[in-house]
Write a structure and sequence with these properties.
heterodimer; A: 195 residues; seven-stranded mixed sheet; 8 helices; globular; B: 467 residues; four-stranded parallel sheet; 16% strand
């Protein structure tokens, strides 16, 4: 897993609530058996008319040239719906390292963290302050300090992340390595559990 | 202080609590399917680690399979490759697979309970958000991502932060024509598509106790649609009667031993919940959704919200977006609106009881000529039972074809899709944009409301047919 410590980047504002995983990556793209290449189908049906890459929908923010960056900012309840990790893979593959929202669905949040994409939960007011910024504004996120700052105004807020997941993100460790190192403890647990 | 049923089961499965982090939670049963497992198999192979407890895994092919001519090779090459990959992976790693053609094949959340694999007190995971279904048996069951599937492969554990607990009490009797699907659609409409995020939900109360296991599964199934990590119902005599004699349920002396353990699985009278919600069963009408998330639902007799009812600009914008997608207007009524499709199926409503309900409405009648149908049993076993009870004859006589088991038009991964712009009354769980096919307009409802639409071709209050 890729590590993440600090990032300063412009951002893409997605002013839509309840963005579900079917929008992030429609089910017809789940036939793949590898993790690669999902980025080109990220938000596929919001990006293109009739599934046609030569007809981008100009009103969708990913198609608006003035917006760019490695941070996606979305309205509340981002990532609701299915458990498909393909949603996190597509966001990462597209080039996002951070997703900011005022509220994340649980499974998506776990999936993002397991793929080196940092979900940053901010207050409603802070989210609105980000949305009020222009396309040239940048956000800075410092994972060690757990802060997010709107660089143009200096407005800053701290965000929550549990200490274990923070260490994983900072160092690029993943849970599977950790669990593999616990095998004996798990075997010991099973002796009692399976009685 | 007393414990909730959730706490009792959770605490028994914690291997270790990581300081400042999640718990390492032991998993009793791991269900896998073709769509969310291949990358986990590749991952574990790359690490050179074997599957830790392959005997605790059961696999089936359901999401990406055709629901016609399952005896023939799958025509879509990508789908075929994905299903073949599952067969290959299961063979290589010693995992029991109920693939296409196997009598145990079906939707993963239908076959688990049906085979007696799902049992009270267990922790159960699957790379599918509707794993919450199994909570109906008094188990902690929840959906996981593919990285977590790999974790269970590696160590039979997942890392989970303990969620908060919520109890939803539903007391009293349901109106005639109102079923468990209406209860859960009512709850989600009340608390929104994110109202239970961060929580595990226990459903309780006399209205829940009165439900069959199939009906309880429908409720627990849709817990995720209000953001909950899972939902559960304490086991009781209904649970044990359903389970007894099923192929993987404990037998003989072992059954009696387990029964004693299961009878301890209830919430203590003095246990505390982080949140409690009380609902009067009699207040619930047949429900239907109008929008693009399951929280956008109302009584079939109701009217859509008006523009003026929204104060928040983003919420108003989202409502407008949903209306535009659905081709509906603020403040309108849905009753009498024509629908072009009816889909009866999915892990929410594809069990034998659902087919009995539908058959009871359409018996001796003809399907409305304007309606196209996708009628899909949840498993081979359900399909067999439909025949054994002669329900298939009722459907055939009504001009309705029954397909073969799979997830089908619930998520539109295979060829079972609803065309753009057409309305579909669906017994499934999600009405997201494009869920049932690009541009498809999904109206979530109960099997009874779906059956009414089969006859009328319109959104109908089932109570008008019943009374």
């Amino acid at each position: 897993m890729q590590s993440l410590q600090k990032i300063t980047s412009r951002f893409i504002p997605l002013r839509i609530e309840n963005v579900d995983t079917d929008q992030i990556i429609p089910a017809r793209f789940l036939k793949a058996t590898t993790k690669e290449g999902f980025g080109k189908n990220l938000f596929r049906d919001w990006r293109y008319e009739n599934d046609d890459e030569s007809k981008p929908k100009t009103d969708f923010v990913l198609n608006q040239k003035q917006f760019s960056g490695e941070i996606l900012v979305a309205a509340k309840n981002f990532g609701c719906g299915s458990s498909r990790e393909h949603a996190a893979w597509s966001i990462q593959d597209y080039g996002f390292k951070v997703v900011v929202s005022s509220f994340f669905a649980d499974i998506f949040k776990n999936n993002a963290l397991n793929n080196g994409v940092l979900p940053v939960t901010v207050s409603d007011a802070f989210l609105q302050a980000i949305f009020a910024e222009g396309a040239d504004a940048t956000l800075s996120i410092d994972l060690e300090k757990q802060t997010i700052t709107i660089d143009t105004t200096g407005a800053s807020e701290s965000f929550e992340i549990n200490a274990y997941k923070k260490t994983c993100m900072l160092n690029g460790y993943d849970d599977i390595d950790y669990l593999l190192s616990m095998k004996e403890e798990i075997e010991q647990f099973e002796l009692n559990h399976n009685k | 202080m007393g414990k909730t049923i959730f706490d009792k089961i959770w605490d028994k499965h914690v291997v270790k609590i990581i300081e400042g982090g999640p718990s390492v939670l032991y998993i009793d049963k791991h269900l896998i399917h073709e769509v969310t497992s291949p990358q986990a198999f590749t991952g574990i192979e790359k690490r050179g680690a074997p599957l830790f407890r392959p005997k605790q895994i059961v696999a089936t092919a359901d999401h990406n399979v055709p629901t016609m001519n399952q005896h023939l090779p799958i025509a879509d090459q990508l789908s075929k490759f994905q299903v073949d990959t599952l067969i290959e992976n299961c063979k290589k790693h010693g995992v029991e697979l109920y693939g296409l053609g196997h009598p145990n094949q079906g939707i993963v959340h239908v076959i688990g309970p049906e085979l007696g694999i799902t049992q009270p007190g267990m922790t159960i995971v699957c790379g599918d958000s509707h794993t919450s279904t199994h909570g109906a048996f008094g188990s902690i069951a929840f959906g996981i991502g593919t990285s977590e599937v790999e974790m269970v492969f590696a160590a039979q554990c997942v890392m989970q932060t303990k969620p908060k607990v919520m109890r939803i009490n539903i007391e009293g009797s349901l109106q005639n024509g109102v079923v468990s699907k209406d209860i859960i659609l009512y709850i989600i409409a009340k608390i929104s598509a994110s109202g239970a995020t961060g929580y595990f939900v226990e459903y309780a109360g006399s209205a829940i106790r009165a439900l069959s296991m199939e009906a309880r599964m429908t409720i627990c199934n849709m817990s995720i649609e209000m953001g909950a990590r899972g939902g559960m119902i304490a086991p009781d005599e209904t649970t044990y009667a359903y389970m007894k004699g099923r192929p993987f349920a404990p037998q003989g002396e072992n059954w009696n031993k387990k029964l004693i353990e299961w009878k301890e699985l209830y919430t203590d009278a003095d246990a505390k919940f982080d949140l409690e919600i009380n609902i009067n069963a009699a207040d619930i009408d047949p429900m239907i959704t109008y929008g693009t998330n399951p929280g956008m639902g109302l009584s079939v007799q109701g009217k859509l919200p008006t523009m003026e009812s929204f104060t928040d600009a983003t919420e108003k914008q989202n409502f407008e977006k949903a209306l535009a997608y659905m081709g509906l207007e603020a403040g309108q009524s849905l009753l009498g609106m024509p629908v072009q499709y009816v889909f009866i199926g999915s892990c929410t409503n594809s069990r034998i009881e659902d087919f009995r309900l539908v058959a009871s409405i359409i018996k001796g009648k003809q399907k409305n000529a304007s309606v196209k149908t996708l009628i899909v049993p949840g498993s081979q076993e359900v399909a067999k039972q439909i025949k054994a009870e002669g329900l298939d004859k009722i459907f055939t006589a009504a001009g309705i074809e029954i397909r073969q088991a799979g997830c089908s038009a619930c998520l539109g991964m295979n060829e079972d899709k609803i065309p753009a712009g057409e309305y579909c009354i669906s017994t499934s769980n999600r009405n997201f944009e494009g869920r049932q096919g690009a541009g498809a307009r999904t109206l979530l409802a109960s099997p009874l409301t779906a059956a009414a639409a089969l006859l009328t071709g319109k959104i109908t209050d089932i109570r008008e047919i019943l009374n």
